[in-house]
């Protein structure tokens, strides 16, 4: 089954250009991100880029909801760890109930700015035991926001530059 709304794949030369732009963006974020954040939290910016590019088609108007959802997902993963540490198994149960309530809000599309696919992606990744045991959640949240803003500015700059060199549609 094919999606009739999908855009055509770029040709080989355009595809190479896109890959080169992606490489520049990744290297730039790796340099900037490692200067600001630990290696463990740097993935937040990359994960946000992946979501924004693949599910939101790099639409700048979708970036705020993507960042907000990512922060909700990180917060949901954090609260389970926090409540478990403070209240033991009762805290874990409460944290999991909060998580289930958030998933329900996403399923029924209540407050989609906050409870969206980005929230569920970041919840899934940040709630993984290997991540939970090693991550500084506040730094992950900050790295995600800064990475999202970096990639948003980068992509919009590339779009504007490309528009200057593209022939007008007509």
UniProtKB/TrEMBL annotation:
UniProt KW Transmembrane helix keyword: yes
Protein name, per record: DUF1097 domain-containing protein
Ranges that cross the membrane: 12-31, 65-84, 96-128, 140-158
Source taxon at top rank: Bacteria
UniProt keyword annotations, A-Z: Membrane, Transmembrane, Transmembrane helix
């Amino acid at each position: 089954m094919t999606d009739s709304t999908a855009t055509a794949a770029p040709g080989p030369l355009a595809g190479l250009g896109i890959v080169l732009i992606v490489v520049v963006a990744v290297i730039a974020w790796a340099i900037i991100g490692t200067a600001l954040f630990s290696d463990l939290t740097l993935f937040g910016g990359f994960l946000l880029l992946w979501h924004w590019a693949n599910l939101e088609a790099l639409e700048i108007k979708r970036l705020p909801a993507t960042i907000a959802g990512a922060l909700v997902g990180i917060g949901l993963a954090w609260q389970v760890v926090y409540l478990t540490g403070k209240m033991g198994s009762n805290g874990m149960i409460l944290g999991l109930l909060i998580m289930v309530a958030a998933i329900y809000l996403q399923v029924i599309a209540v407050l989609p700015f906050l409870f969206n696919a980005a929230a569920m992606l970041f919840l899934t990744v940040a709630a993984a035991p290997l991540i939970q045991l090693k991550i500084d959640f506040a730094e992950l949240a900050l790295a995600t926001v800064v990475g999202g803003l970096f990639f948003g500015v980068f992509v919009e700059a590339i779009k504007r530059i490309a528009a200057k060199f593209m022939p007008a549609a007509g």
